[in-house]
Design a protein that fits this description.
The chain contains one helix and nine strands; from the N terminus they run H-E-E-E-E-E-E-E-E-E. The chain has an eight-stranded antiparallel barrel with strand order 1-3-4-5-6-7-8-9. With 186 residues, it is mainly β. The mean pLDDT is 91.
Length: 186
């Protein structure tokens, strides 16, 4: 009888470790199935990012002007709530907003630090976000920035975003950027 009780508790503790994960005090290893994570997939998103600095209702607002007299604008900071659309026209179908900021982070070239969430409002992605944090050397034809995470359907996501200038209006400062985003997610 004692050996059966010992075997029962051994199996119970083993199954608890397998279900809960390895315990290290403040951290533990989990089986991803416990979080509902299935097979990882690769998705491609293509949309247009509208940086509107002109007019009565801009989507990009300068918060900090460059404190220096510099050709790169080093030190400026702009908050964004930019429309993301299916096509390059601002009145094409809205699929989300790019929310965050960009700042001039180089003294030698026009290179921006981009910190933004692509907050989607369309279809099954409604309410989910993809987070981008990276360097954007704006005069390069194609700029690549890392996807560092996300929320909703993009929990545990990773990947990269490629930005390519579609149009830039020198008079108004408005820009339309084509984004191609490649994301690994569950």
């Amino acid at each position: 009888m004692a050996s059966q009780i010992t075997i029962f508790f051994f199996i119970l503790s083993l199954s608890t470790i397998l279900v809960i994960g390895e315990d290290h005090g403040f951290a533990r290893r989990l089986d991803r199935k416990l979080l509902g994570l299935k097979k990882e997939k690769l998705s491609h998103f293509r949309f247009y990012w509208h940086d509107i600095v002109s007019g009565k209702n801009p989507s990009s607002v300068a918060v900090v002007k460059s404190p220096l007299n510099t050709t790169t604008g080093f030190g400026f900071l702009t908050m964004i709530d930019n429309p993301l659309t299916v096509g390059p026209k601002v009145d094409s179908k809205l699929v989300g907003k790019a929310q965050g900021f960009y700042a001039s982070a180089s003294q030698e070239e026009v290179s921006l630090l981009m910190v933004m969430n692509f907050a989607f409002i369309e279809g099954k992605y409604n309410g989910s976000t993809i987070t981008v944090l990276g360097r954007n050397p704006v005069f390069n034809t194609i700029r690549e920035m890392p996807v560092i995470g996300g929320s909703g359907l993009f929990r545990f996501s990773r990947g990269y975003a490629q930005a390519k200038t579609h149009t830039f209006d020198i008079k108004t400062g408005d820009a339309i950027i084509e984004y191609n985003v490649y994301v690994l997610h569950y």
